[in-house]
């Protein structure tokens, strides 16, 4: 069984460490706050520095906040690079830019360390194997680390080669934050029209199960056959979308409320629904 270390014991890293301890993978942990491990069930005391993990672990998972903290863990005093054995695999869970990922991968390679980019979602449930791991790695490296990823994840998805896991996480964040913006615009409009926003939110949550989500049209194939049922459905939805967002934009104009997301959605409706092919 692979020996695994975790650097960064916040909500995600701490949860990962707890899961790996339960699964029998966890060898060592490190955090800049040495007391971080004290309340994590089954997790050993923090090692004195990242180098200690490099000396004993086959895989090191890093769950810090940003790229600079990753570089510090690698290249700082007593960093991973100072003691790494060739063949060590570094799994990066931190969401960073692809440019930063490239430079960190190049830095790690100088010590024979392989890098796996592993964007994760579901942070609040990390301690109960609730993470979804979006993995970028070559096939051989993915197969090597997959048992470890399964040790803490609800779902492990090999998105493709190096960089694709991070790209998938970045793209996923675009959906999340844009949906938040859409919710903000809806609430803004509702409040301006005299609607109780808390009741409005509760009504939306109550209808979530039967209302389409952000991935509704993403994975569905659209036929080039003009008479196809799928294409007819999309064209019907286009008509409804245009009608409904026109009403929303008319109301926003009356109330002097700016709804750029709604406006863009109406303008780009064909692309959103896959009818621009």
Describe the structure.
The protein is an alpha/beta fold. The protein has two domains: 4-162, Rossmann fold; 169-272, N-(1-d-carboxylethyl)-l-norvaline Dehydrogenase, domain 2. The protein is 47% helix and 14% strand. The protein has ten helices and seven strands. It has helices spanning 11-23, 50-56, 67-75, 98-109, 139-150, 164-192, 197-207, 229-254, 260-267, 269-272; strands spanning 4-7, 26-30, 59-62, 89-92, 114-121, 131-136, 153-160. The protein has a seven-stranded mixed sheet with strand order 2-1-3-4-5-6-7, sandwiched between helices. α1 (11-23) links the parallel β1 and β2. It starts with a strand and ends in a 5-residue tail after the last helix. The mean pLDDT is 93.
Brief digest:
By secondary structure, the protein is of the alpha/beta class. It has 10 helices and 7 strands. α3 (67-75) runs parallel beside α4 and α8 (229-254) runs antiparallel to α9 (260-267).
CATH topology group of the largest domain = Rossmann fold
DSSP strand (E) fraction? 5-15%
Categorize the overall geometry. Answer: elongated
Strand order of the largest sheet: 2-1-3-4-5-6-7
Uncertain ranges? none
CATH superfamily of the largest domain: NAD(P)-binding Rossmann-like Domain
What is the number of helical segments per DSSP (H or I, 4+ residues)?
10
Our count of domains comes out at 2
Mean pLDDT: 93
Total strand segments? 7
Structural class: alpha/beta
Radius of gyration: 23 Å
Helix content: 40-55%
Task: List the secondary-structure elements in sequence, H or E.
Answer: EHEHEHEHEEHEHHHHH
Name of the CATH class of the largest domain:
Alpha Beta
Biggest sheet, open or closed, and with what strands and sense? 7 strands, mixed
């Amino acid at each position: 069984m692979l020996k695994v270390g975790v650097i960064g014991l916040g909500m995600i890293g701490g949860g990962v460490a707890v899961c790996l301890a339960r699964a029998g993978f966890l060898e060592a942990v490190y955090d800049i706050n040495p007391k971080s491990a004290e309340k994590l069930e089954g997790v050993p005391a923090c090692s004195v520095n990242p180098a200690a993990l490099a000396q004993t672990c086959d895989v090191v998972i890093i769950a810090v906040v940003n790229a600079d903290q990753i570089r510090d863990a690698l290249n700082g005093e007593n960093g991973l690079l100072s003691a790494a054995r060739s063949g060590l695999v570094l799994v990066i869970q931190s969401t960073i830019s692809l440019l930063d990922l490239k430079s960190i991968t190049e830095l790690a390679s100088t010590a024979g360390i392989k890098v796996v980019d592993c964007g994760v979602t579901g942070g609040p449930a990390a301690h109960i194997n609730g993470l979804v791991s979006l993995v970028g790695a070559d096939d051989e490296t993915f197969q090597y680390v997959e048992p470890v990823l399964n040790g803490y994840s609800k779902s492990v998805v090999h998105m493709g080669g190096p960089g694709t896991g991070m790209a998938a996480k970045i793209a996923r964040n675009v959906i999340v934050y844009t949906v938040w913006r859409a919710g903000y615009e809806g609430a803004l409009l509702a409040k301006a029209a005299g609607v109780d926003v808390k009741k409005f939110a509760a009504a939306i949550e109550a209808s979530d199960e039967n209302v389409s989500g952000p991935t509704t049209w993403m994975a569905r194939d659209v036929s080039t056959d003009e008479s196809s049922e799928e294409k007819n459905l999309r064209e019907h939805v286009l008509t409804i979308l245009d009608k409904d967002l026109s009403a929303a934009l008319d109301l926003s104009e009356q109330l002097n409320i700016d709804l750029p997301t709604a406006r863009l959605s109406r303008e780009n409706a064909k692309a959103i629904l896959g009818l621009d092919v």
